[in-house]
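Schema walkthrough. Field components (list of strings):
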Amino acid sequence: MSKENGIKGGLKQVLGGDLRQFVMVGAVIVALIIFQILNNGRMITSSNFQNIISGNAYVFTLSIGMVMVIILGQIDLSVGSVAGFVGMTVAITASEYGWPWWVATLGGLGIGALIGAWQGFWLSKMGIPGFISTLAGMMIFRGGVIWMSHSISRPAPEELSWFGAGSLPEWGPNTGLNNSTLLLGVIAIAAVVFMQLRKWKRLATAESKPPLWPVIVRLVVIVGVIGYLTYLFGSGNIGTSFPVPGLIVGFLVVIYHIITQHTRFGRHIYAVGGNKAAAALTGVNVSRTYFLAMFNMSILAAVAGIMFIGRSTAAGPSDGNSWELDAIAAVFIGGAAVSGGIGTVVATIVGGLFMAVLNNGLMLYGVSADQTQVIKGLVLLAAVAVDVLNKQQGRPSIFSRLSRKKAAPAEIPQEQIATESAA
Amino acid sequence: MKNNKRIIAVAAAFALAVPLALTGCSGDRGSGGGDTGSGFPADATVGVALPWLGTQNWAEANDMFAEQLAEAGFKPLVQQADNKVPQQQSQIEAMIEQGASVIVVGPVDGSQLGTQLEKAKEKGILIIGYDRLLENTTGVDAVVQYGSIRTGELQGQSLLEGLKELKGDGPYNIELFAGGPADPNAPNFFTGAMSVLQPKIDDGTLVVVSGQTTFEQAATLDWDNSKAQARMDTLLSGFYSDKQIDGVLSPNDGIARAILTACAQAGQDQPVVDGLDAENESIVSIWEGHQYSTTAKPTDKLVAKTIELIQAAQKGEALPEPTSSTNNGKIDVPLYELDPVIVTKANIKEVFADDPSRLELLK
Amino acid sequence: MEQDSILQMQHITKTFPGVRALDDVTMTVKRGDIHAICGENGAGKSTLMKVLSGVHPFGSYEGRILYQGEEVTFANIRASEEAGIVIIHQELALIPELSITENIFLGNEPMKGGLIDWHTARKRAIELLARVGIDIDPSIQIKNLGVGQQQLVEISKALSKDVKLLILDEPTSALNESDSENLLEILRGLQARGITCIMISHKLAEIAKIADAITVIRDGKTVESYPVVAGQVDEDRIIRAMVGRSLDQRYPEHTSNIGEVVLEVHDWRVEHPAIPGRLVCKDESFYVRAGEIVGFAGLMGAGRTELARSLFGHSYGIFQSGRLSIGGKDVKAQNVEAAIQAGLSYLPEDRKVLGLNLLDTVKRTIVSANEKAILRGPLLDSAKEVQVAEQYRKLLNIKTPDVGVGVNTLSGGNQQKVVLAKWMYPDPQVLLLDEPTRGIDVGAKYEIYKLIQQLADEGKAVVVISSELPELLGITDRIYTICEGRITGEMATKDADQETLMRLMTTTEAMA
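Field assembly_structure (string):
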């Protein structure tokens, strides 16, 4: 093996085999550094990071549900309208009918669930493609918002602003950081260390043991990153912390990562999206899978809508306009395939984060909205094009293109040749 | 195995040590507070958050703020939100990040910026609402705008005068259009206009043939011309197959032109239509005798007034006496209201006497 | 000798990142020959043809190609087609919603005054179809044609491009016997008109019938290349060259140990899902005993697959009546999940369309039909998943460096083993295997036969559905014949021969 292969192999081991996700993470970091320089150090600050997270929490939330729908090979165009509809419902029930904020919020989530059942019904029971049934939903709920609000913005319950823009409490000794954020960071680090070591232990069998050093290197890197973020978020002005909406999104990411990767339902989403006929012949209940994914999407849209009115302090008639497009963009930048079967929650969030950082950086730099749109469009296209090129059969990946120069035609186990031209 | 356990222990210790190490090296956390009273540097950054560039008056405001703020010695930071609330929220946050001393906000939706404006307020930033009211927040120091009720009154009067001038004696068949419902000014325009028109509807001089006289019925979502045109088409085919339409109340110029197009396509005589904003196309249309009038709210005056307030605050002076004040849901906001100007073919050359680019159109 | 050859490929080497797919391959094709290329899956046959046809453009490989005596450097398929080299892939490239004429002239439409001259196109389509011996209206849509006819339309399309060298990749793999026979006839006809053919095939019997020369490729290298006389081909020599070892027998020795009846089907009646009133299974009954391998012989469309799938949780057609029991217990499974629960497994005939999610990994695929077994609480146990997958990788000798890789990186034979593992993991009592060895090479076939026998030896009831009669005769204990939704015959394999079976497969009269 040549040296390059050794380095590449080592990197692969450290990163856990999935290079592409880390390419995106790298892109986010590079973007941050570039904007940090362009904006004279105004990019990587605690308050700006807080802004990025709480300003995009609703998109992240939507994109978590959206990636599941897209893995299924479907799409949901109604999420923006549903978010707007639920947000307006909560604001109206609270401000006009005088419902307590938490009753109004639960009511909003309930409406989200009902809408989800409605969308799921048309796809799973009637077999109407998601593109069409949710296009209809988009019109129905967009119209519904305007209808019930008479196009007038309504104030949101004040308590909700904690969910949409709030900070965690300050307590305990003066550590120089927000102690809630510090605690979160410590919990996150402990969880990561525990998970990685447990995974490594369980993979180790009596006869073979995977090497420990990649795990250690990986842990050092992850712990460093989390530690730095903890510091960054925690060292803002007194009264600020890692934002509450970010915490909600983080919680959702963990839950949905587990659902998609470690439950039967999650597997079934990939199975149906990858090959519906094969999934059906494997015992997957295709129609139930469709239903649950659409159902879940609308509930998350409701969550996003509620978080947004919390941040905006009011629900407006145009809330949710074109949010579905932001969510869909995040999903595809995260490497999902239009034809379904491919995509992950974590990569989607990284994709969404990339767009958020780009948007924020350009804004700080004072780039106008029209130019920002153009740049974002080009970046979306470029990200997906790179991905498509990478996936094309027989083409070297970017990584190997970079490291190939000197690498001799490697000796590969003979059986790998079989990958080409299988009958 | 033993060896591995030791490595695990080392890793765990390291994991816990890193954040603690990081906490050790930090220390001073600001409180974020500030105060407004004592002025700010003459070259301070002034953020201007505009909703979009889709109409001429916003595009003009965009350019004028950039130019005139720079001339006045400030560092202008003018951004547009593409008519999206979340985008504008982030832009205002970005302006705070950039250390702006003043933020001028032409809101997409004046009630949905509470969190950001209050954050700015905490930092001691001067917040001026531009052209539209900032509602439901304590984070606003002043609002500069053309009186929107007054604008509506002028539109209504202009429509009545036009009808008398061009359509002989009444009764006149008219239809009503209002602006985008998300814009807090739109209902005010309509209210103002109706305060003039309603008595004439009641006494039979004006007949709203479709019977659609509430704001909700007359509203045009997002101020979208094509939606207005579609509504006019529907009204004409539904109610005017055997009638002539004499006049239409239009909330702005784009919608006025859409209405005129719809009428022409339906084979109607040209109705009397008012407008708003004095857009170039409408100026030409008035000059050529199609649109009857527009209501000019000269952007330069509004921008000049805004900059006047900023300069006063920069020197640490008290803001000049407001024309009135209004409750925005949380506090009483000082209003600096300007009077708009009605423009018809008769006075058009006077109004734009010192506006060469518009005079150019009148040939 | 030189003038005589239409094509010489010299020292062709093609590497993909990390994989040397072709290693110094040299071959010569004589003008007017039917030249067969044999090799196991993954040996490099298809890659070689892709190099020849410009799919892998000049510059992406090493070596020289001489065509009609001159060196050629094709940049893409269009360039090679202009030179008269046309490749017909195994997966047909016709558009189902378009007519025959439109398909034949797609991208090559006869023009008159800036518009497509459909009149001429149609006339030429009729001529071309006549040359491949079919007489049908060229305005029929492709989707209404059988696979055999579609193949002929593909050849017509090639003829329309004035083909000199026609390359066929596994042309008969999807055809039944009579269509295959017909196709071979047509190739002979083309040969008589001076068209040279290169044919990639697994079916040695066909090669033996019509090839004039044979090149065997193994592991990206030419093993041997020699002229033959049609009808006098030594099949064993080809097999030896392909697998690099001598195969005394193509079917492993096996002594069955047959026990009690496990699967029993009574008066099974199924209606076609789209055509009301048409029955795809007409009140048929059969049984399979523990440890027994039972063959279902039938032509395509006879109802074999339909029967198997309707037994498997009613996953095909509209169930009307009938009784299904496993191990003496009635099974009323109305969906696939329940059928798996009841002890049934069905390995679908089309691996890529019905058997696999090609985007998935090996380990996930192996556990996919029995995810309950790796549940820990509500979550799937990924460590157990790896253990299970590793166990099957060893048991079935699945050639993959890691069970975490995508199934799309495996060769056809190994993919099929993964599917087999997937259906073994639920530990079924009855396995319905639909064309278990289609499209995989001789070596892998042998391994799959051994696995089938092992399964039977474990006491499972195994049904093998196959179009290849020698295969059924080679590995089963008993054979049912099916024709038009009816079981037309049943016999012990030792009493059966190809002719008897073929007669029963083509007659609707039940045996006396």
